[in-house]
Here is the input.
Amino acid sequence: MSQEIRWGIVGPGRIAQSVMGDFAHVEGARPVAVASRSADRAQAFAQQHGLERAYGSYAEVLADPDVDVLYLATPHPQHHAIALAAIEAGKALLVEKAFTATTAGAQEVVRAARGAGVFVMEAMWTRFQPAVVALRELVADGAIGEVRSVQADLGVDRVYDPDDRLFALELGGGALLDLGVYVVSFAQMVLGTPDTVTAAGSTYPTGADAEAAVLLGWDDGRSATLTTSLRYPTPGQARVFGTGGWIDVLPRFHHPATIVLHRTGAEPEEITRPASGVGYSHELAEVTRCLQEGRTESEVMPLADTLAVQDVLGQAAAQLGVHHREDPHVLSA
Here is the structure.
């Protein structure tokens, strides 16, 4: 378990900037390289974070024999092509959420990863937060009985700007892929894959979704009521309801420090489990551990769950009239 795992960063944007500091909390992980389509941007990122190598193309980092795993943090529609090329090059992957822009794109990446025996995981940091781990343990132990329903919301108030990536359909903009992925993934984590998806919402002039309310249904009567928005703010809270009580996940639920257990007939029990660093360290540690152990998937964030979430997002987007596409030209641009 002493093997050092060497990381490359693909896409030195805002999320990558936030993630970099958490490598210091992960034993056995060392970031060594960064790649961007702008050599100047890559060089600036490398100097800021003390990386050994900076590449002005994605192809160069894919060919680097001293990189074991790539953290893929480009816009959603670019994940598909880069991931397929990385898998072909034998590079393990941590792919930022949303995993791809389309369900078909996600399916192709997963098929390629499984066929090649290459480790790939979606960077859904929520599942690795210590407070969420505690919630999963409580649910598994039957602390609130049989789980029957989930509520979750995640919304922000962003001024519409057609030039901003968040509102550009060709860059995977919209509430569903950026924020809705969290509420859907949380519900899928607790309840499994739904049988029905019903969505209502609105779109921007660019064709990207502005807001969505999503009702997930299961044939046995279980349900999830989910809200996401770029048009209005929400508390960012989640609740898991069971036949013997419920659990509140305090805001913001996608990286919480505290949950509150409400057992029927008992006083509420507050459970605080703070994250290490900003909170990305836990998913980085999972990938590092899996690679050290020779695994090709994470048991906490398996590819089957990623596919299920991507399918829900795709169905919801289609019902809103939103049609995302993968970018096939990202490696040649």
Observations:
- The two ends are 39 Å apart (CA to CA).
- The chain is about 30% helix and 25% strand.
- The chain has a mean pLDDT of 97.
